[in-house]
Amino acid sequence: MALEFSHDCPYCKTNSIGFTGRYNWTIPGVGNQKFILATCNGCHAGVIFLFRLNNHTSDYDFSKANGNLASNGLQTMHSWPQTAHNDIPEDIPVQLLGLLTQAIKCLRQGAWDAAGMTFRKVIDVSTKLLDSSFSKKPLAYRIDDLEKSGKLTADIKSWAHEIRLDGNDAAHEDDPFTREQAEALHSFVDAYLRYIYTLPKMVERSRETRDLANGKA
Ligand SMILES: [Zn+2]
Predict the structure, then answer these.
(1) What is the pTM of this model?
(2) Ligand 1 center to residue 194 CA distance, Å?
(3) Domain with CATH 1.20.120 in the chain
(4) What are the CA-CA distances from residue 149 to residues 130, 144, 174, 197 (Å)?
(5) Please, are residues 116 and 181 in contact by the beta-carbon 8 Å criterion?
(6) May I ask the CATH architecture of the domain 94-201?
């Protein structure tokens, strides 16, 4: 039997959900502590725990554990991660959601070029959705226009010019994306999407809630 215990899952955000111990290891020279990788029984994501062993030494076999942590003398000292970052900004159009999910998947698999091109496509499709006349302009110009019309801040605009968003450097246009370039594009795309879609929706919802409370709706 594997060790089973309950914990709040940082990924699926379920409180006090069951976790199953998968693998554990000792710290050389430390007799009363042990690391264990456990997975959430709901979403199957992994969390690493550092336990203090109050009743046993570090050769303690977790598979013999029965009952809860306390009855086995196990005390959670720390767990990683505490909170898991949500990769997908809320309230983005469905066309972008599909592309962004693909791009993040490529990034996790180390397919930097596919990730870079797909992140770029997210911005390409998004700017066309915002203004159909954009389709003939290079991406960098569209970002400049969005800043001029007040839809993006000057900071986000200059950020767009610091990363490989556009193929405006003709000499390097065909070079595959490096890991750094793909990750930089991910950060940019994340900020862009939150600024263009997530924040305005958040403001709108907060205004609606306020109006309801004030009896205006
Ligand atoms: Zn979970």
Answers:
(1) 0.61
(2) 24
(3) 94-201
(4) 12, 9, 31, 16
(5) yes
(6) Up-down Bundle (1.20)
